[in-house]
Design goal:
By secondary structure, the chain is α+β, with helices and mostly antiparallel strands. The longest helix has 28 residues, at about 370-400. Helix content is about 35%, strand content about 20%. It folds into 3 domains: about 5-50 and about 165-235 and about 325-385, 3-Layer(bba) Sandwich (FAD/NAD(P)-binding domain); about 105-160 and about 390-495, no CATH class; about 245-320. The strands form 6 sheets. Strands 5-4-16-17-18-15-19 form a 7-stranded mixed β-sheet. A 6-stranded mixed β-sheet has the order 9-2-1-13-22-21. The protein contains 16 helices and 23 strands. The structure holds flavin-adenine dinucleotide. Flavin-adenine dinucleotide binds near residues 46, 49, 187, 339 and 352. Pfam families: Trp_halogenase (PF04820).
Length: about 500
């Protein structure tokens, strides 16, 4: 008999999982698993989550979505990383007011690792993000990561997308159904748990009882299956990441030819930060903040001041969340994916990528022979480590700041709010920079390049003086830095603007 999989929830997590697993588990073939997705029309989806990670390209390609469809149907634009303003110093203080975390890895010329040379001062005055790859300068000039002639998901500069989250869920749904997923618009009213502690079936309003071999909980913060029915606890990490609220607004461009910024802009505030994401026809802006350090009124006042008159009297949407994760996200025959599994503030766009990772793990660990326990153990261990490493990476943006202008920033640098694992990493990097030996690609979403961009963008000091003599290829390094500069100038001269590439995709036949 075919294995049956029931996904409850049709937000980004549900439909991404459905579309992806339909391909990986061959839903459309007789030997494949049968996938049904049930979503409640009344509850609706969260519908925020506009910034992604470069892994999304492979995921969308597997599902069978084209870049043209992304641009036309989801208002997509090309994202080349994140730009952080006012994270290191209070606005107005002397010193650099921003740094970037581009997706492009640092260039290595003939295997020469450039970072130690930059740390020793051979890269000049410029920041690390500027000297190690051409991407920062190209993105600052609003260049796209590729030419119109490059195939889908292929480019000289690494990239992801910004898109309209509600439209994306719709596109993912259409593809998943095309890939063989059965779609039910219905509400799950009860989850039955058998004597063995596994889910025995779910009741729905219109379709009666549904049962499956594997249940996937994509019900968002409600966590109807993994949390409410199976009682798997949610571990709050607000002790580390204080933000628990967001106010979101969508605003038009002042002028329809205004450049589309190729980064997610993240501007630090007195008790949090604001995101600013440029799509093809509008911007999505949000204020993420800690309710323990400010209130909604002040947060909205700052958001409206940031947005200016283009915000008009547009309504602001309020969202509450709790930074954290479940330590057990696969229990018996139920797996949680998406917000039901865990969530951190969207500072580094870790929401959707966790759904991508989880869907990939389920495809690889799918219990064809019925052995849920072995798969669950591996899944839970892997996801937990991923959550903990991502938590540390996000905390890094706060805990090495030199800002002390509010309680929020003072609390963020308190040693007690920094996990031991992060203290340990920072200790390592006082006398050597992060390298691949600090990274485990099986659990780390962020590579050593990401850690380097944030550390050195924030002015972290790694003292290489004791080993300076080991770096003898100074002239080669200087040549490599000059080559990056040449490549940046070439990219700026030859790549289309972000808006031109989007317009091209819109009009391509
Ligand atoms: P939801 O969108 O909430 O979907 C839940 C689904 O479950 C819905 O279809 C609902 O109808 C259904 N459901 C619930 N109960 C039942 C029931 N009883 N019966 C049937 N159906 C039911 N991620 C990023 O990657 N990048 C970002 O920039 C980003 N920004 C974010 C900003 C904010 C402020 C927040 C809060 C999150 C952000 N995220 C971001 C995370 C991202 O929004 C989520 O990862 C993504 O939306 C997935 O949500 P979901 O599908 O798990 O839940």
């Amino acid at each position: 008999m075919r294995k049956r999989l029931l996904i409850v929830g049709g937000g980004t997590a549900g439909w991404l999982t459905a579309g992806y697993l339909a391909k990986r588990l061959s839903t459309d073939l007789p030997g494949g698993a049968a996938i049904t997705l049930v979503e409640s029309p009344e509850i609706g989806i969260l519908g925020v989550g506009e910034g992604t990670f470069p892994t999304i390209r492979r995921t969308l390609k597997t599902i069978g979505i084209s870049e043209v469809d992304l641009v036309r149907k989801c208002g997509a634009s090309f994202k080349q990383g994140a730009k952080f303003a006012h994270w290191r110093f209070t606005p107005g203080a002397p010193g650099p007011d921003h740094y970037t975390h581009p997706f492009q890895l640092a260039q290595a010329d003939n295997g020469l690792d450039l970072l130690p040379y930059w740390l020793l001062g051979h890269g000049g005055e410029a920041n690390w993000d500027e000297v190690c790859s051409p991407q920062k300068k190209a993105a600052d000039a609003h260049r796209a990561p590729k030419l119109p002639s490059h195939p889908d998901y292929v480019a000289p500069l690494n990239y992801a997308f910004h898109f309209d989250a509600v439209a994306l869920a719709g596109l993912l749904r259409d593809k998943a159904v095309e890939n063989g997923v059965t779609h039910l618009m219905d509400r799950v009213t009860q989850v039955h748990v058998g004597e063995d502690g596994a889910i025995a079936g779910v009741d729905t309003e219109a379709n009666g009882r549904l049962d499956a071999d594997l249940y996937i909980d994509c019900t968002g913060f409600r966590a109807e299956l993994i949390g409410k029915a199976l009682g798997q606890p949610y571990r709050s990490r607000r002790d580390v990441l204080f933000c628990d609220s967001a106010l979101a607004i969508q605003v038009p461009y002042r002028d329809e030819r205004e450049p589309i910024v190729s980064y997610t802009l993240a501007t630090a505030q007195e008790a949090g930060w604001m995101w600013d994401i440029g799509l093809d026809r509008r911007r999505g802006i949000g204020h993420v903040f800690s309710s323990a350090h400010t209130d909604d009124t002040r947060a909205e006042e700052l958001l409206r001041a940031y947005v200016g008159d283009v915000g008009g009297d547009q309504e602001v949407r309020k969202i509450r969340f709790e930074a954290g994760y479940r330590e057990t996200n696969w229990h018996k025959n139920c797996v949680a994916i998406g917000l039901s599994s865990g969530f951190f503030e969207p500072l580094e766009a870790t929401g959707i990528v966790f759904s991508e990772v989880a869907a990939g793990l389920v495809a690889n660990l799918f219990p064809w022979g019925g052995d849920h326990e072995t798969s669950a153990r591996q899944f839970n261990a892997n996801m937990l480590q991923r959550y903990e490493r991502a938590r540390d990476f996000i905390k890094l943006h706060y805990c090495i700041s030199e800002r002390r202008d509010s309680e929020f920033w003072r609390d963020n640098v308190a040693a007690s709010s920094i996990p031991d694992s992060l203290h340990d990493l920072l200790d390592r990097w006082r006398f050597r920079p992060p390298t691949e030996i600090d990274i485990d690609t099986n659990v780390d979403i962020f590579t050593e390049a990401s850690w380097q961009y944030v550390l050195y963008g924030m002015g972290w000091k790694t003292d290489l003086s004791a080993r300076a003599g080991a770096y003898r290829y100074v002239e080669d390094a200087r040549r490599a830095f000059a080559e990056v500069e040449r490549q940046a100038a070439f990219a700026i001269a030859n790549l289309p603007s972000n808006r031109q590439l989007i317009d091209y995709a819109r009009t391509r036949s």
